[in-house]
Description:
Radius of gyration: 13 Å
Order of helices and strands: HHH
Shape: globular
Structural class: mainly alpha
Oligomer: single chain
Amino acid sequence: MTETLQDLMEAGRLPPLSYFFARFFARGNDVGEDHPLALSAALVSLRNLQGDVCIDLTRFAGRPLV
């Protein structure tokens, strides 16, 4: 069984803020909560809550995000 973002939140493995940010992001991009974009948003939010505020944009420059 694959765990959903909601399952992770309910199990205490994903903070509610990260879950709801991912859900908001998914809806804004017209994708489902199980889409890689939603998972990415949840992980970015989680890492931000853990104090990681930097991202090396040169790694992504000139490349499609999806």
